[in-house]
Amino acid sequence: MVMKKHKDLLAILRHNNMRITPARRLLLQYILDNQSSGISLRNIYAYMNERLPGIDRSSIYRNLENLKHIEIIQELNLPTVGKQFQYIFDKKVHHYYICKSCGKLNKGNKTLFEKIESALKEVHGFKKANLSVIFYGHCASCSKKKKVLFYCTENLGK
Fold this sequence. Notes:
Blueprint: H1 2-15, H2 22-33, E1 39-40, H3 41-51, H4 57-69, E2 73-78, E3 82-87, E4 96-99, E5 105-107, H5 110-124, E6 134-137, H6 140-154
Parallel strand pairs: 4-6
Antiparallel strand pairs: 1-3, 2-3, 4-5
């Protein structure tokens, strides 16, 4: 099954007038092999450099940007972890909400997606969204801590 996906993704690259280089082929395979989790830039570089010694970091960055542009991967910027890349090409819902305080990552559910899609249609007339969004804010636990901290510091002067 992974091989079929790999061939499908190579066809997508060709359709977008992207050359099929050994580096792109290897990067795609690594992303597919790790599609159930986020992949750090450090891990991508280590994997690529081990198999293609001396590969230029800027080449990896450009390939990642190209894969983001054609929506094969998305970039997550996690507060406590840093940049992560995640495979999204054939996944139906791939939006997240991330706590800026503790870094907890939550995957959005179908109900949330449907509400956002409905609002897009109602406000902008936008239909059939394939949404890939990341919301940053504070989780319930961190929000409570912030309220307590704010209340305590506010009442210190009294």
